[in-house]
Amino acid sequence: MKKRSVRSLDAATLAGRRALVRVDYNVPLDGAGGVGDAARIEATLPTLDLLLDGRARPILMSHLGRPGGRVRPEESLRPVAAVLQQCLGVPVHFLESTDTDLAVQTSHELPEGEVLLLENTRFLPGETANDPALGRRLALLGDFYVNDAFGTMHRAHASVVGAPAHLTPAAAGLLVEAELEALACLRESPRRPFVVAFGGAKIGDKIPLMESFLERADRILIGGAIANTFLAAMGLPVGESMIEDDAVTTAAELAARAPDRLVLPVDVVVGEPGRSSGQAVVAAEAIPWNLAAYDIGPDTREQFAAAIAKAGTFFWNGPMGWFEAEGYGEGTLSVAGAAAAAAEAGTFTVVGGGDSARAIREAGLADRVSHVSTGGGASLEFLAHGTLPGLEALDDA
Ligand code: ADP
Ligand code: MG
Questions:
Q1: How far is the CA of 253 from the centre of ligand 1 (A)?
Q2: Which one of 209, 279, 304, 355 would you pick to mutate in the ligand 1 pocket, going by the greatest count of ligand atoms within 8 A of its CB?
Q3: Residue 266 CB-half CA count within 13 A
Q4: Does residue 142 sit within a domain?
Q5: Can you tell me which atom of ligand 1 is nearest the CA of 294?
Q6: Could you please report the per-residue DSSP string of 147-203?
Q7: How many whole angstroms separate alpha carbon 119 and alpha carbon 104?
Q8: Which residues have C-beta within 8 Å of that of residue 109, sequence separation ≥ 6?
Q9: How many angstroms does the Cα of residue 36 sit away from the middle of ligand 2?
Q10: Per-residue pLDDT tens for 230-282?
Q11: Do residues 15 and 146 both lie within one domain?
């Protein structure tokens, strides 16, 4: 899956021309007109610098939140423009519309060396439905297209697949390129043993991914609420633990297909449902009826760390427990630590998934692994299927 990179665009393509760039500025807002966390804005700077250095004129579009096709002022991208201007050090103009004649006119008038940020694409009724007419109108905003919003590439939306269908070239930004390189390596040529760890809560969403790794990984470590569903599938009592009833049968099937490669917790940290009290470590098959399993236990942490240390390639998705709550973060921390240690010893180590990425960042270990995917659902879908709608929309290399 080799896609044309923004780095391959020549001077004739760039100089003086409008680059319609899909970015992912779906950032948390602080409610006081500011941005809570600028990481996603900072992540786009290399691509924007490259375009500005080539004297292209970047026109940026992004979604924010889920306004559902109507204007919700509290989900305006306006606060992002100020932060971007500060990070980028060039004037960033904000326009309160996206697919209007005014937007097209403003895009044509944008001076070189400056940037235009358009309003939230999800204010437009046709965005998530990929209305073909909207895709055509958005394409009028640029002379060529760049997608640097890896996290939305699994969505067949107008700004992701509609607009690039009408623009040439349509290239991958630097963020997208880095994501593809790391994830393609996991899919295509993982150094063995290939160890993966799954945790988190959304087992239903993750089943296609787990199935695809069942064939390719040498060891699949399972923690988090997902592990509870597997324990339930084995007929074990899980007390008040969070499980997904709909996924129990599938979990049983997965376990039956690879009993030697799936590693379930041997012990868990239990506590009163929904609280950080009454905590105790119990064997995984002895979860009391009135308590819930909220973390992997110390023996499991040791087993998981030993498996990760031996890995040639390690992929981690999903926290090992209810890590946001006091007293249930140790399992997640220990996997994060094992991942960093393995990476330093030469293991190719990738962390993917919104909450697991946040957990490793909060642990201060994000810089020590090979790659932290910003993609969430997009990374998981790419790993499961090897492509994404937003990638298909770009030119081949
Ligand atoms: P990711 O975003 O990394 O893919 P998920 O979204 O699937 O991960 O799940 C993350 C959530 O799962 C976190 O909020 C975490 O608290 C929760 N979680 C993990 N393990 C448990 C558990 N044993 N019980 C309850 N919640 C859990
Ligand atoms: Mg999540």
A1: 22
A2: 355
A3: 7
A4: yes
A5: 23
A6: E--GGGTTS--IIIIIGGGG-SSEEE-HHHHHHHHHHHHHHH-PPSSEEEEE-SS-H
A7: 13
A8: none
A9: 18
A10: 999 999 999 999 999 999 999 999 999 988 999 999 999 999 999 999 999 99
A11: yes
79 and 213 share one domain: no
Task: Print the domain residue range for 273.
Answer: 190-385
How much distance in Å is there from the Cα of 61 to the middle of ligand 1? 31
**Is any ligand 1 atom within 6 A of the Cβ of residue 294?**
yes
Q: Is the peptide bond before 28 cis (omega within 30 degrees of 0)?
A: no
125 CB neighbour count, 10 Å cutoff = 12
* Radius of gyration over every alpha carbon of the chain, rounded to an integer in angstroms: 23
Quick: pLDDT tens for 285-303: 999 999 999 999 999 999 9
Ligand sitting nearest the alpha carbon of 224: 1
Which CATH number characterizes residue 140's domain? Answer: 3.40.50.1260
Which of 322, 362, 373 has the most ligand 1 atoms within 8 A of CB, as the residue to mutate?
322
Whether residue 390 lies inside any domain: the answer is no
Question: Looking at residue 115, what DSSP letter applies?
Answer: E
Residue 331 burial (C-beta neighbours within 10 Å; 0-12, 13-18, 19+): buried
Q: Same structural domain for residues 209 and 164?
A: no
Asked if residue 199 and residue 145 are part of one domain, the reply reads no
8 Å CB contact between 249 and 207: no
Just list the catalytic residues.
40, 202, 354, 377
Domain final position from 173, 202, 220: 173
pTM greater than 0.90: no
Distance between Cα 242 and ligand 1 center (Å): 10
